[in-house]
Amino acid sequence: MIFPTVLKRFARDGLYEMHAPLEVTTAYLRELQNYWALRTRSKTELIAAYRDLGGVVSKYAHAAEENAELRRAVERLERLLRLSSFDHYRSESARVVNRDFNGWWQQLTIRKGSNFTIPVGAPVIFTGGVVGRVTEVHTTTAIVDLISSPKVRLAASFEGDDRPVSFQGGINPPLSRPTAIAEFVPLDLYASAADPKPLITSGLGGVFPRGLRVGTVVKLDPSPDGLFKTGRVALDPRLNQITEVTVLVPLDPL
After folding, report:
1. CATH number of the domain that residue 97 is part of
2. Which of 24, 29, 122, 140 gets the highest tally of CB atoms within 10 A of its CB?
């Protein structure tokens, strides 16, 4: 309480920068351990894995061709309808160094920071949709608050419906499927475990682009005031085991 806030923040950042290389080194050692573990596999296992990998590569090659064709179709429609392009980000992939799944916050530490011009507030995604947003940036690492954290709020909407709703992470015990809360949902929308509704980013707020998958609403009940509904959102269970993410770095930061 005696020292000024600036000195305390400087000491905290200095200690973190000294500790961060240890976490990064540990992550590299884990990957090296996995590499040598794979080297002990027999030739028969390697041949079978190579055969399976060939099928996966062929599948992704076909998906890449379809994606390229869809991108060209979107560009044609944008030119025809005179719509502005939403490609205002560059993708920066990053490995996960560490996880902190406290009940009151859930965070990831990724292996890229200011050395790759990662900004504070950048959205983070993976194959299942939104991961979270960057809240701290250091020299070689960055801290990401997961969307399952109660500290994260964003504007979302139901797929096929443009009306915005409020999304907030929940209190999630360790080793459980992450969940969140959807609030201010219009009364004419319905969702249940038998008929879940996808929830996507609305594009409002200027952080997340529109259309990114957030989760699935599996329950909606009237709120106490009777004006809206409140629901439970089931998030992608892979958030607990994610090993690599993509940071969307704005090309024209404000």
Report:
1. 2.40.10.340
2. 122
Burial of 58 (0-12, 13-18, 19+ CB in 10 A): exposed
Question: In sequence order, which residues have a C-beta less than 8 Å from that of residue 177 and are 6 or more positions away?
Answer: 234, 235, 237, 240
Query: For residue range 191-220, what is the model confidence (pLDDT) as tens digits?
Result: 988 999 999 999 888 788 888 999 999 999
Instruction: Tokens for 239, please give them.
Output: 């958030």
In which domain, by residue range, is 98 found? 89-149+244-250
d(CA 14, CA 37): 36
pLDDT, mean of residues 11-35: 69
Share of the chain above pLDDT 90, in %: 40
Give the total residue count for the chain.
254
Token pair listed for 19:
């500790």
216 in a domain, yes or no? yes
pTM > 0.70: yes
Task: Indicate whether 141 and 203 sit together in one domain.
Answer: no
Per-residue pLDDT for 134 more than 70?
A: yes
Residue among 121, 130, 115 nearest 210 (CA): 130
Q: Evaluate if residue 127 carries a pLDDT over 60.
A: yes
For residue 215, the domain's CATH number is 2.40.10.350
B/e letters for 126-141, b = 16+ CB within 10 Å, e = fewer, are beebbbbbbbebbebb
